[in-house]
Specification:
Layout lengths: L2 H24 L5 H18 L6 H22 L6 H11 L4 H9 L2 H12 L4 H8 L3 H24 L1
Helix pairs in contact: 1-2, 1-3, 2-3, 5-8, 6-8, 7-8
């Protein structure tokens, strides 16, 4: 593939998929800046590796899986040396208000937040999510059910307060 074609293809991917990838990354990391880093790293990987995709769905699935994996890596590797009060203040200033439901989804354990996000916010079926995350279909169904239950409990607690 010529450099010009690669550049056009990458530009198309960035424009088409960035919003979805940012939303997906936010299910795994705490700040928009970390989500942006994860997405940027994935696009840099595309540029460096030049993967071949069978079709548009394969391309989308590859980008989504790579973004979720990179966001998880960023979350695990994050080490803040700032005092606790400073770190909390910085996080509060950086994090936008997503409303109670999306905030609750983001606060779920990673296994649940990813499947709930992909199912409800991105419109994937359980079978498609299983393929994206390389999980058995029953596992995705179980995580979706358990995630819904945890959300229900969390939202009931908020209403009680």
């Amino acid at each position: 593939m010529a450099e010009h074609e690669l550049e056009q293809d990458l530009r198309r991917m960035v424009e088409a998929y960035s919003p979805m990838l940012l939303r997906a990354a936010m299910t795994r990391v705490k700040t928009p800046a970390d989500a942006e880093d994860a997405v940027q790293d994935v696009f840099l990987r595309v540029l460096a590796k030049r993967p071949r995709f069978r079709d548009g769905e394969h391309e989308k699935a590859w980008l989504l899986r790579a973004t979720l994996n990179r966001a998880s890596d960023i979350r695990r590797g994050r080490r803040d040396d700032a005092p606790l009060e400073e770190a909390a203040a910085a996080a509060a200033a950086e994090e936008p208000d997503y409303g109670p439901l999306l905030s609750a989804v983001r606060s779920l354990p990673e296994a649940y937040s990813a499947v709930i996000h992909l199912y409800y916010y991105e419109g994937y079926s359980i079978k498609e999510i299983a393929g994206l995350l390389a999980l058995p279909i029953p596992t995705v169904g179980t995580r979706l059910a358990r995630g819904r239950e945890r959300l229900r409990e969390m939202l009931k607690e908020e209403d009680a307060v």
